Recover the amino acids of this structure.
């Protein structure tokens, strides 16, 4: 984050790119990201969006919540369609930023083939995955990024039996130009990572943990708080990978100096989707986080 | 420069795409389409053709790239065959619903399982309801001419066009053909301008969720619901037949080739028995017709070049006076009959005096279609027409079975 001046609420652009009122649920993490993300991206952008909560948020014909050009595409083809839009812009000699914006289903599951293809070709696009850790738009079914033991309508009672996919690591195996993780609870961090991504050519991948009150079973006013707990507990980490080098950023970077982080139980116990967790599971998860951060403290220089 | 070539059908298609100045090409190789992708990438790499070639990881993405590029105003092209076309199926519907003017060559091949890399028409026939215009070429020259005309049709009616030609019979055989001059094609096919192109200076949301009912916008104007959008596609697809004829007339004026772009009759004027077929099979029937005419049978063949939209009245006009119509198809609607046969029957149904129809299934998965077998099937029908029972007439007859 060194090359870009940090944005704060004072110098954040006042211009709005989303019309007041949209179809997102109360407390939607995505609507924070969408509003703030557009302020970083600016007007010279085209969005490519597969079926997801964003499809609904953007409005139903003939009414639109967004002021930006949007191409809705089929579920599995987001990165390919964005490739085509970028190719057309190249033909017209336009620098217009093409932004693919998909959920975890559209990215980690049904859309992963097209994403892998675009990564391998190193298409000059920004690919944003807002990961709310289940298929929220269809009413909370498990996805590849749903955490182990997470309750969804297709993993009822005892929760998901499998581990989640680490999508940024899958993306990293393709060696793209830029990877960043973000959280909807740190929107200005997302804003500044987008500013940085705009200046890099090749494929830029941004993965955002996005709290979802109805899907996670939290109160609507807890969206920001819960996302911060995920980061403060060291469960979800903010980082960048540039030229193959991983570096913790923002709040996660600050935590390197701390001897102990916030207990992950604070995060787990606030969400009904973790009702299948018992104390033993929380202890195991805490131990996993502790080991990870032990490694981080050795791996990353404390700047 | 001599514009006569002797080349494969696949190279003919690639050269036509170059002449049409396609700007974005995305394709995934599949037999027997592969040489189209190879020729296009070769021409682009050598700088002989100015276009973006995107080597995608699947057919689904190939059409995805074309959807993105066409939505942003670039002339787009892809090509595929068989299972590749079926893998695109969702995207076919999307491109048509989004009214994107793109062209795709489908090098027709049987569909698995079991695997077959050889020719029949099941791939294209199975996608007939996707909302694409489907035309079938009979020979190499038609591949060239149809492909160039297809871009103009797609861009005038805003409906994607599928140019079909037979795998191997046309794709891999070498035949002479003429190529029009590049500057003449530029005059015939002006640069593509689409008013709903993705443009940050005039932002629009494309393919947004559309409700069952028509709904007013913020200016109080009632806008279509899903059903009106779909009705519009159907109506304009029907009109595309007229536009296709106009384009063909213009092409004829510019390049001296054309006429009968929808269905092409051979010896049909006084024919009592008319054979109907699509693609190279229609040309193969010329020998059968010539032979039977010599023997005194009043036989003709109607080559159907435009399958969707289905040219109901064109066909009815030609077929209705005949005594009998024999429909030969390289595909079928499993559990019923040949799809073309069923379409023809329905086209003729409103006429009180209508011919009897016979359905023949032939050449599936590349099974050799022997002209003598075709001749015998036609002759048997001509001889036995009076004695056949209706239920026998309406049952597809399989030609060339070996067991």
């Amino acid at each position: 984050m060194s090359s870009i001046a940090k944005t704060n609420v004072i110098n954040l652009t006042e211009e709005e790119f989303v019309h007041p009122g949209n179809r997102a649920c109360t407390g939607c993490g995505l609507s924070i990201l969408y509003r703030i993300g557009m302020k970083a991206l600016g007007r010279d952008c085209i969005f490519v969006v597969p079926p997801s909560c964003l499809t609904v948020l953007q409005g139903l014909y003939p009414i639109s919540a967004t002021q930006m050009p949007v191409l809705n595409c089929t579920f599995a083809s987001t990165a390919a369609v964005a490739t085509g839009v970028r190719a057309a812009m190249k033909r017209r000699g336009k620098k217009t930023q093409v932004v693919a914006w998909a959920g975890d289903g559209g990215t980690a599951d049904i859309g992963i083939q097209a994403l892998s293809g675009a990564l391998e070709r190193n298409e000059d696009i920004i690919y944003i995955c807002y990961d709310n850790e289940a298929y929220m738009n269809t009413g909370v079914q498990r996805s590849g990024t749903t955490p182990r033991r997470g309750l969804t309508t297709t993993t009822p009672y005892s929760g998901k039996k499998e581990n989640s996919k680490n999508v940024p690591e899958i993306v990293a195996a393709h060696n793209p130009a830029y990877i960043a993780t973000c959280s909807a609870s740190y929107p200005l961090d997302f804003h500044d990572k987008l500013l940085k991504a705009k200046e890099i050519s090749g494929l830029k991948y941004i993965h955002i943990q996005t709290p979802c009150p109805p899907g996670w079973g939290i109160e609507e006013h807890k969206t920001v708080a819960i996302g911060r707990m995920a980061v403060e507990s060291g469960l979800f980490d903010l980082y960048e990978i540039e030229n193959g080098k991983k570096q913790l950023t923002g709040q996660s970077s600050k935590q390197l100096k701390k001897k102990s982080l916030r207990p992950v139980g604070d995060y787990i116990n606030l969400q009904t989707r973790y009702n299948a967790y018992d104390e033993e599971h929380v202890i195991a998860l805490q131990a996993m986080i502790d080991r990870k951060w032990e490694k981080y403290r050795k791996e990353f220089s404390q700047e | 420069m001599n514009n006569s070539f002797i080349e494969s059908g696949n190279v003919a298609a690639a050269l036509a795409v170059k002449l049409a100045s396609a700007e974005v090409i995305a394709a995934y190789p599949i037999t027997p389409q592969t040489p189209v992708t190879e020729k296009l990438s070769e021409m682009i790499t050598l700088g002989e053709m100015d276009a973006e070639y995107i080597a995608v990881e699947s057919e689904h993405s190939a059409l995805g790239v074309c959807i993105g590029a066409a939505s942003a105003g670039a002339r787009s092209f892809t090509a595929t065959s068989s299972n590749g076309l079926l893998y695109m199926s969702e995207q076919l519907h999307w491109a048509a619903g989004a009214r994107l003017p793109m062209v795709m060559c489908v090098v027709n091949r049987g569909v698995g399982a079991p695997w077959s890399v050889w020719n029949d028409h099941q791939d294209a026939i199975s996608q007939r309801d996707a909302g694409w215009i489907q035309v079938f070429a009979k020979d190499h020259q038609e591949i060239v001419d149809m492909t160039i005309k297809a871009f103009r049709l797609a861009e005038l009616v805003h409906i994607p066009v599928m140019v079909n030609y037979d795998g191997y019979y046309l794709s891999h055989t070498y035949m002479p053909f003429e190529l029009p001059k590049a500057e003449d094609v530029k005059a015939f096919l002006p640069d593509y301008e689409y008013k709903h192109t993705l443009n940050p200076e005039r932002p629009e949301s494309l393919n947004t969720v559309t409700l069952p009912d028509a709904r007013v916008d913020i200016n109080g104007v009632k806008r279509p619901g899903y059903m009106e959008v779909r009705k519009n596609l159907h109506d304009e697809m029907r009109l595309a037949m007229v536009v296709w004829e106009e384009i063909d007339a213009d092409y004829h004026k510019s390049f001296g080739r054309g006429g009968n772009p929808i269905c092409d009759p051979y010896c049909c004027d006084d024919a009592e028995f008319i054979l109907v077929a699509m693609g190279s099979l229609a040309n193969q029937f010329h020998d059968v017709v010539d032979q039977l005419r010599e023997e005194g049978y009043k036989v003709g063949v109607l080559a159907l070049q435009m399958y969707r939209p289905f040219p109901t009245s064109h066909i009815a006009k030609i077929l209705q006076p005949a005594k009998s119509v024999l429909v030969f198809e390289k595909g079928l609607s499993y559990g019923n009959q040949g799809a073309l046969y069923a379409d023809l029957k329905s086209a003729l149904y409103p006429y009180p005096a209508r011919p009897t129809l016979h359905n023949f299934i032939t050449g599936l998965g590349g099974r050799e279609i022997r002209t003598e077998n075709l001749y015998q099937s036609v002759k048997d029908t001509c001889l036995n027409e009076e004695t056949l029972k209706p239920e026998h007439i309406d049952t597809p007859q399989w030609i060339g079975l070996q067991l």
Remarks:
- DSSP finds 14 helices and 18 strands in chain B.
- Chain B has a mean pLDDT of 96.
- The two ends of chain B are 53 Å apart (CA to CA).
